[in-house]
Structures are given as structure tokens and as C-alpha cells.
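Limitations
The C-alpha cells in this dataset are predictions for the assembled complex, not deposited experimental models. Users should treat interface geometry with appropriate caution, especially where small molecules or nucleic acid strands are included. An illustrative entry is reproduced here so readers can see what is and is not provided.
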Amino acid sequence: MSDKILYGYSAIFDKPDDIIKAAKTIAESGYTKYDVNTPYPIHGMNKAMKLKPSKLGYISLIVGLSGALAAILTMWWMNAIDYPIVYGGKPYFSFPAYIPVVFEVTVLSASTATVLAMLFFFFKFPNNSHPLQGTEYMKKVSSDKYGVIILQDDPKFNESEVKSLLEKLNPVEVIPIYWDNEEINHKHKILEPKFILFLIVVAILNSGAVYFVYNKLLYMIPFSWMSEQQKQNPQQKSLIFADGYGMRTPVEGTIARGHLPYQFAGKPDLAGEKLVNPIPVSKASLKLGQEKFDTYCSPCHDYHGTGQSRLRGQFPNPPSLHSEKVRTWSDGRIFAVITEGQNVMPSYSTQLTEDERWAVINYIRVLQRAMNAKESDIK
Amino acid sequence: MISSSTIEYQKKELPAKVRTIALGLLFFGLILVIAGYFVNPARMAFNNIIGLTFIVSIVVGSIFFVSIEFLAGAVWSTPFRRIAEFLTYGVFIIPLVLIPLFFNLHDVFHWTHPEVVNADKILKAKAPYLNVNFFAIRVIAFVLIWIIFQRVLIKNSEKQDLTKDQHLTAKNVKFSAAFIPLFAITITFTAIDFLMSLEPHWFSTIFGVYYFSGTVLASLAAITIGVIFLNENGYLVKGLTQDHYYSLGALMFAFTNFWAYIAFSQFLLIWYANLPEETFWFLQRWEGSWIAYSIGLIFVRFVVPYFGLLTQPSKMDPKRLKIMAIWILFAHLYDLYFLVMPNYSRSGVVFNWFELGFPILIVGALLLLFFELSKRKNLVPIGDPKLKRGIDFRL
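Predicted assembly:
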């Protein structure tokens, strides 16, 4: 035994009250380097051991505040400076929207920093082995006993005094704890080959598992049932058709409903002569016409077709729809303008189907009639 | 955990000074209220709502505090549970505060005017819920529920002082379990009926929780004030330590954050969605001098208590905790004013002696009630089997 180096003197107790009393006595005797090990946190231990409040909170505070600041600055830079886009009509820098993010980042950074600081500063990680590890003492205090240990490097430490002090506290037993000779001579390096090898093995296993799951496992039955379904996807090769194309072209000469080819491209006057409005004037048609006119035409032509654009000069004002010229145009002539566009007005054939174009024309007739009412209309 | 302590409780009477102060406050408040009703009944009716929701917060929140203790089997609050129990006797004051309101319903709730409702599509659709008869039924039912559970829980607790019968605790656990869901329902609908329906077009699904957070805060603050004043002067059982104070402070701190969380959630969703049927409620509180009041709410209700209770010493020091508890009680009034008064004065904040009447009256009434109860009953539940463990409670 004499060749072993003492780590500390431990005492084991049966009851939580005894351990509190023991901690109090030891603290009052002036020892500073001692520790208490219990299976669960015991209320009042901080006070009995005269522990000062932990400094850990300051680390949480500082890192948390930095996290909050970083989140605010990031969002401010991205949303208000570097790439400003209007979202939902809110200002570029809209603080209420940032608060949830700031809150989350604060909590995340503070809690991560707290755990890491606890491990590295307070638990002195990486600390591969501890003299208490695997001892009989540790086994007991981590199941049903309460232990206290006075460390040998305490300035007041004196083997016989400590022993008698502990024995006076009525413990179940008093055990000296020694350093493991092998451990004390062994200098732990973070770049130890064993440790590096361990890391490499973990890395290989980890990446292998991830590779297997995402590239192999998910393509095996039954894991692949969601991704492989009995249907033809766009661009997929077909096994049914001889040419192998999954996407079929319609029969030659097929015309989709409402998409009759326009025969008068570049010939608006001819269109005006030949085309006849197929949509009879009805309440439904006028309502549809008004809706489409207000959506697509009114930004430039104004709700009443006067040409008083709502775009405040960002786009040239169109001529009025109430001019003699437009009023005497046939429906087909107006249809040609909507379909092909005129001067700076672009084509609206993609926005409005044929029927909708005719409905808009019906509505334009209503506007024209209203703006140029005859005497008989007023009566 | 140190089981060496013994229960040392000597019943002492509160000084007669308390009674004088309570009576003084009560009469002063009563004069202000009566004078207010003569000068400006409409304004007093709005103040009546503030006063009512304020006392409901303290009293019903205290029943909640007591039942939570039973339900959770908490021991730390047992040594001063009687203070919360005394406050619950305020359920008998609630009907008195309700009476003047029932005579002035037309001044505060415009859904009580049939001609307004008939002309309004939305109010017409809400009429099956928002009508005077159903409103009265609800209010009476809620007050009855509170009174019944107050009687049951507190009677059992007081009986235990004499009989020391442990089964009474087990009984109260069952009653508490029944009360918690009823509490959730009643407090939610109290918030909807008295506060949200002041602006019957507006709705917010989180509003009940908003009022609940304030309720818990107000009752905790009232209990904390009582605990500190009584314990510092030796009226309570010996052995209450800063660990008990800390727990009260930590709860207040938690619910301060909870309030901020709820209040901000409500604001964020309405602000983000930007729907005119919701935003107008906040826009009203953003008009004229209300803007300063609304920004002030963030500081009064959240920032000050947050930093006031953040550190460990601030929760353990009775002096600082007392100041924060009084502040939180004040902040609850501030919050209720924020919820109610913009409906009275659209253009800006109004404050005069009208606003003082009800709070003074209620504080005086509760204080007098407390004094009278303390003469007849023990200030500590001496028969409670959890009492000793409660005194031994350490963090």
C-alpha cells in the first residue's frame, strides 16, 4: 500500500441527513477541496457545502446575448441591406418577425455554450480517467449510499486528522482512495493514437451507416414503397409504347377546348370583318367580363376605360376606349387587339381564354354605352 | 431534508392598525366609487370591469394555487397555503362587484343594444352567445362554481387543523383534479365575456390564456406580499427560508415570461396576417397617447419584472421580492386598463380619480377580509401532513 499515492479520504453514509451534516462539519472545519457524491441531488447541499453560486450563468448570459445580436445583425443585413424584398407588405427591417428567430438562436447558443463550458471548463474534459472511477466508493454512492471525499491536495490535509474527523461523523465506513499507478504516470494527450483510431472508426461507421441508409436501404423493398409507385411519371421511359416515350403527343389535328388557333395573325382588319362574337350578352357573361377587365385591363385602361392609368406614368397611358374609332370597331376588331396586342399593349391571349376575351368585349360595350348614353337611355 | 426541525407556530393576532388601514381604504374607495357613479356612470362601468377582472384574478387565481398544490403534492407551499386560502374568501366579494355592472351593462357592452345588434350582421351571428340572458347565466354559473370549490377545498383544509385527518388531503386532491378543468373553462370565458366582448367584433383565440397568465401572476403576487409581510413579522410558522421565497419568485418570473410569450404570440400572428378584422384592436391601442401606454405595457409587465426577478439573490431577498410582487400586482392593473379603457376613450389615455376607486376598494376589502379571517383561523395549516416537509423544503 505504501507505494500508492493517496488521492483522498472518503466516508460513506446511510442517510441523506447524515451527509448534509457531514458536509456542514467539513466545510466548517475549513476544508476547501472536498466533494460530495450522492445518487440524486439533495436539497440544501449547496448551503451545507458553502458553495458559491456557479459562474456558469455568466457564460450562458454572454453567449446568449451574442447569439441574439448575431441573429438580429444577420437578418438585418440579409433582409434590409443585401437583398431587400418586400414580404407580406412589411418593412424590410420588421422586428416583430425577427423575435421568434432571435429567441430560438439565443436559447440554442446559450444552452450549447452552457453544456460545452460545463464539460470543458468545469469538468475539465478531456479527462480520460478519474481516480474515483471503478472504485467501490463510486459504485456505492451511485446506487444507494451517500459519500463525501476530502482530497489530499487540500491545504489543511493531514491524513490522521482527516481520518479521525470522518470517523467522528458516524459513517458506515471510511476508505482511503489511491491513484492508480498506471494512470498517474500516464500522460493523456488529445492526439493519442488510440483516440484518433477511435475517432476514425466512429467516422467510418457513421458515414457508412448514412451512406447505406440513403443510397441502399431506401431503394429496397419495403422501404422503397413510397418512392416506387405503379405509375408513369413525366419524362419517364415507358415500357408499354414501342417508341419508349412515356409522354404521348395528341392525335394530329387535335385542338384543345377554348384554344382554337387564331387565323388572323397580323391581319386585325380582316379579323374585324370575319370574326363574330359567339358569346351572347348575359348577366353572367358581363360579370365575367367585368371581373377580367378589372383584373387585366383596368391597370392601364382605368376601371371605366378612360385611359387614366393607375400606374402613375410608369407605363404610357393608352388611348380612351370611348373614342369614335373604338366605338365603331366591330367586336372582332377588338378581339384582334386583345389577342395580338397593339403598339405597346402586349398580347393577352395567355391571360384570357377566347370566351373570356369575348366577355371582356361585351363589358367594354357596356362601358362605352354608359359613357355615351343616348337621351333615350336616361329616361 | 434535515428532519431536526419542529413545527413552531404560535397564533398571534394581527395588529389593529391593519384593520384601521383596511377600513380606511375600503371607505375611501367606496366614496370614490359612489361619487364616480354620480359624476360619470359610463366611465365607472368600465372601471368596474377592471376592478372585477382584477379581483377575479387574485381570488380565483388563489383557488387555482391551492388546488395545484394539492394536485401536484407540492410541499414547499404548504406552510403558507393558508394565505392563499384566506384570499380565496374573496369569492364572496365578487358578486358585490358584479352587482353595479349588471345595472350598467348598456354602457360597456354594445352587444346589449338590440337595435345595434339587428343592424350588424356579425353581431347578429354572435347573438346566440352574446346576449344578456345567456351572459347572466354564465356569470352566475361561474361564480357558483368558484364558490362551491372554494367552500369544499378550504373547509377540508381548515377542518384538518383540528382533526389532523390525512384523508382530508386525499379528498382535496380529488376535488382539485375536478377544479382544474373547470378553472380553465371559467377563466377563459370570463376573459371572453368581460374583456374580449367589450369589442365584440374582435376575436383572438389565445385571449383566454392571456388573461390566465395575468391571473396566475396577480394571485402569486398577492400571496407573496402576504407571505413576506407576515413572515418578516413572525406571524407564520418558524422555518420559512429564502428557499421558499425563491420558489415564489421563480414562479412569478416564469409566469412573467409566460405572459410575454402569450402576449407576443397574439400580437405576432395578428401583425403578420394583417387582417383588418383583427388588426383594428391593436390599431386602437396605437392611437394618440395610447401608443405610449402600449409600449409602456411591454416595460411594466415584462421588462421590469424580468430583470427585477432574473438573478437568484433578487428572488431570495424578501425586500426586493416584496417590491417586485407589488409591482407585478400593479402591472396586472396596468394590463387590465390596457385591455379595457381604449373602449371608453378612443383618442387617448385618460386617468383621474375615477380610475382609483375600484382598486382601492378591492385592496381594502381583501385586506379587511384577511384581517377578520386571521382572527378566527390559524395562519398556518397546522394539521397538514405535508407541513413539516414543507418547512424542511430546501432548494
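Some entries come with short summary sentences. For this one: The interface with chain A takes residues 1-4, 243, 264, 267-268, 271-272, 274, 312, 393-395 of chain B (CB under 8 Å).
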